[in-house]
Amino acid sequence: MPEISQWLRRMEPQRWAIRGSALIAIKAELEPILTRVDVYGLEEESRVAHNAVTAGHYQILWWGDFSTFAAAGDHWSDTFLSREGLTPVNAADNEQAKALAESLRARVDALTE
Predict the structure, then answer these.
(1) For the whole model, what pTM was predicted?
(2) Among 31, 36, 55, 92, whose Cα sits 20 to 30 Å from the Cα of 45?
(3) Residue 60 confidence (pLDDT)
């Protein structure tokens, strides 16, 4: 979990062009929320709290583990995979997980071309 919370602390606000005193302020507000993520993991309560801080800049629609996402194990993941025409997979099956990851990467690459 530390890698995710460190990214959310250091990089994500900057990706959304938050700079200077606004960046300092948002990082300070996010700190207790992301410390909770470090301790308890990616809980929905923490995502909602994170979004309350970042509402004027960006929102996180979903967070969780790849296994849940890949298997469409919750409503958001199921909706996303269905809308994208992707079939849920068993993340423990390396070939299936790799194929899903490659398909997702191809979609991102197509958006940035």
Answers:
(1) 0.79
(2) 92
(3) 96
Provide CB contacts within 8 A for 15, sequence distance 6+.
58
Q: How far apart are CA 96 and CA 68, in angstroms?
A: 14
CB atoms within 10 A of CB 13: 22
Long-range contacts made by residues 91-95, C-beta under 8 angstroms, separation at least 24?
91/66, 91/67, 92/67
For the chain, which ranges sit under pLDDT 50? none
pLDDT of residue 94: 93
Q: Where are the domains of the chain?
A: 2-54, 66-112
Taking the alpha carbons at both ends of the chain, their separation in whole angstroms is 31
Is 77 within 8 Å of 62 (Cβ atoms)?
yes
**3-state SS, one letter per residue, for 11-22:** CHHHHCCCCHHH
